[in-house]
Amino acid sequence: MQQMKVLFTCAIALVGSLYAQEAVTAAPAQDHHTATESATKATIYKSIVRIEVASQVPDYKTPWNAGRFSGGTGTGFLIGKNQFLTNAHVVSNARRILITMHGSSRKHQARVVHVAHDCDLALLELVDFRPFADLAHLEIGSIPKLESEVRVIGYPMGGERISVTRGVVSRIDFRPYAHSRSDSHLIVQIDAAINPGNSGGPVLQDGKVAGVAFQGLTQADNTGYMIPTPVIRRFLKDIEDGSYDSYADLGAYDFALFNPAMRKVYNLQANDPGVLISSVTSGGSSSGSLKEGDILTAIDGYSVDSSGNITIAGERVNMNEIIERKFAGDKIQLDFIRDGKKLSKEISLKTFPPASMYSAQYGKKPRYLIQGGLVLQPLNRNLYAAHKLNNPRVRRLFSEYVKEGIFKERADILILTRVLDDPINSALSGYVGSAVKSINGVDITDIKQAHELLNPATPPEFFEIMLDGLDRPLIFPSKGLSEANQRISENYGVHKANNLSN
């Protein structure tokens, strides 16, 4: 039986998209609703705005260039005084943001106040809020129940006016968020399409916000997803101090214990709780407390079943939902079995910056270094995708960067991504796509160190670069390097030889 690949897509409407779908515009139906209900809806619609974004997407293939310009539309809604909630992917890489009120043609300039790419939420404010000062603030409600009806309101492509669709909550789960490419959170599935332009719009139930529309499933019709209120409330709580600090992480990998033989090896009965800890991230929240081979049986008093789920408010959810609702610095209790003994430890949760290796990056200029036509760039998800890296060594460094603790010795993994042709680097193209191990005998830890080694006060006769997995070094002379750099700059339009920070 062929396995279907599940693909989530964000629902921002790209300007000029060939895949725009005609929206069904909500029309007043006075025969079925009272005048009071119609007035209430009109008030709500005023607080739901159309967002137009002009963006500039960084180019990881030619990082010295400004990147390509693009544009798109999405939806947002007012939740407080000059506070508009929307999706992070609606305003990612934004250079200009314009907001339009329902029923008006006037565009108002806005800016991003806080953005959380890991949970795909952003908070905007207007430069001049006065035209919106009298609008109602939408109230954040609770998670809708299964089989209950919700309304998705937004500005999908296909028309300029507001659109309303209805759907039924069909699933509450812990699934991937498409925007960051690496994070999973609580998610609510509804049987209503989330079309381009709907992103960032409210999903309402009983007049309150039950979620934020944000992505759809490409291989299913009328299947949309919304960010539920626990994720929204956590984002709003996180930014109360003026900055977004990201999610904390347990720092441990688990493995389900379904196999009867495995359960027998670990002396577990059929109904005993627990998952196997397959590895613990060095320097993470659980480091020094959990060990590989432990059986994690409970988190903060919630029993963990053999598939890694817990029960909260009558719903079975992934055990990481406990961590999801915490912040860096919060303490949790772990119950586990080690060598047949029941143990309990309290740990302090923390964020884990090295994990950003696996997250898509937005709003940042690519870091790079060019010397003698050699283009060196730090490895991350954006670079991996842009250059379609297939070197086995590079793929292992990427996949095991956190799990094997590679980050402790190599904050940056520098990749030779291009060789800009010049006589000084002739016959060096065979090295492209490899990771830099050392320069003139010094192991490379980050891009700033590499820059210093390639630009010393007293240059050596030759620069010798060793790459992971290759026995032969890459060698080029220092003599004539300055002239070569000038030629390369003119031939390839390289206006700046490096960008070491973002």
From TrEMBL:
Keywords carried by this UniProt record: Hydrolase, Protease, Serine protease, Signal
Keyword Transmembrane attached: no
Signal sequence, start to end: 1-20
Entry GO MF terms: serine-type endopeptidase activity
GO BP: any one term: proteolysis
Highest taxon, organism lineage: Bacteria
Keyword Ribosomal protein: no
Coiled coil: none
Domain PDZ, chain residue ranges per copy: 274-306
InterPro entries: DEGP_PDZ, DEGP_PDZ_sf, PDZ, PDZ_sf, Peptidase_S1_PA, Peptidase_S1_PA_chymotrypsin, Peptidase_S1C
Record protein name field: 2-alkenal reductase
Species of the source: Rubritalea profundi
